[in-house]
Every structure is written in structure tokens, then in C-alpha cells.
Amino acid sequence: MFAVLKTGGKQYKVQSGDVLRVEKLAVAAGEKIQFNEILMVGSTVGAPLVEGAAVQAEVIDQIKGEKLINFVKRRRKHSSKRTKGHRQQLTLLRITDILEKGADASGVKAAVGASLARKEAHGAGSTAAPKAAAAKKAAPAAAAGADDLTAINGVGPAAAKKLVEAGITSFAALAAVDVDTFDAVKVKADWVDQAKALAK
């Protein structure tokens, strides 16, 4: 029996026992992995994937492909030429099993590309931490019964932060501000008028 699997943006027709070179996966040599994006098993074609099917493989090694030379030269431009080499990072696999059904219950680790694994690792650290910090900063203000000062036209997050630092956390407090004498933030007269309307 054969199957057609998809990994690294490419499709491979495989049978049990085949040795395959695919784009680098985030696995170590000797691990057993499972490909869940199966386009075809035997004569069964999926739309777009075959439900419950999988291809299991054992990782032989992490290797590099053959060296490719990229040479660029622009004619009649004496100093315009560039040589660049590249060796693609690959994972060497041996296909062990082709499952037509029951892929979810197999308990084998799903194959994940190395670039996707890096994105998930960096994305979790870079976006989750600032969001958590922003939520922590917003929580005390909301708990104290503060109003959302950015609801006033012309007051952005930076101006709202300066107003809060100056002790103005509600529409009523902003409505009571004297525009001429208040020095902490340059308060506009229309902000005070809008705050009076919102404080009612």
C-alpha cells in the first residue's frame, strides 16, 4: 500500500520501508514521528485530507543537502558579480507504517517543521508576555473604578497614561480640571467639555 503525504510544502508518494529526505523537522535522530496531512491512501483520495489516516516514520538523521552555487553577474558592469553557496537542512526518514484509520489514537508525536517550531517558540514569548503585562497594568485601573479616558476624542493611550499618572482617573476628575493652571498634561478645552458630558 502507498500513501501521499504533505510536509514542508511538498508532496511525497511513500510506501512502508522507503527512505525519504524532507525539509528539516524539529525532531532528534531515533525519534518516531507521524505525518497527519495525508492526501491519499491507496485508492482513497481525501478532500482535502484523508480523515484518520497517517504515515509513521523513524528519524534516521539530520543532514544537509548538496551544495548549490548561486552566481550573479551583470554584463558590462565590471564590479557587479556575486557568488553565494547554500546547503538546505534536511531530515532523513524511514517510513515504518501507513495507517488508514486510527491516527488520533496512535500516541505518536506529530511531525512539525523546524521553522514552524521556531515561530511558535518566539511567538509565545514575544506576544504573550506584553499582553500579560498590559492586562496587569489595566487590571488595577479597572478595579479602582477608573473610567476609560481614551473614549474622549483626541485622548490616546499615551495622553490617558499621563492623565492617570497625574491623578485623573475619571471623567468627573477631568471635568473639574482648570485648563489654564493644570501643568502635568496639556489638557484641551474640548476634552473637559467631553468629560463633563460623559460624567453625567
Summary of the model, kept short:
This protein is an alpha+beta fold. The chain contains 4 helices and 11 strands.
Can you characterise this structure?
- With 200 residues, the chain is an alpha+beta fold.
- The protein has two domains: 2-75 and 83-112, no CATH class; 142-199, DNA polymerase, domain 1 (Orthogonal Bundle).
- The protein has helices spanning 114-143, 157-165, 171-175, 189-199, and strands at 2-7, 10-15, 19-23, 32-35, 38-41, 44-45, 54-64, 68-73, 81-86, 89-99, 109-110.
- A five-stranded mixed β-sheet has the order 3-10-7-4-11, with no helix packed on it. Strands 2-1-5-6 form a four-stranded antiparallel β-sheet, with no helix packed on it. It has a two-stranded antiparallel ribbon with strand order 8-9.
- Part of the 50S ribosomal subunit. Contacts protein L20.
- One of its GO terms (molecular function) is structural constituent of ribosome.
Total domains: 2
State the share of residues found in helices, binned by percent: 25-40%
Helical stretch tally: 4
What Rg do the Cα atoms give?
30 Å
First-last Cα distance = 75 Å
* Low-confidence blocks of residues: 138-143
- Assembly context of the chains: single chain
Strand-residue proportion: 25-35%
Strand order of the largest sheet: 3-10-7-4-11
Overall geometry: elongated
Major beta sheet summary: 5 strands, mixed
Strand tally: 11
**Secondary-structure content class:** alpha+beta
Tell me the series of helices and strands, N- to C-terminal.
EEEEEEEEEEEHHHH
Mean pLDDT rating: 82
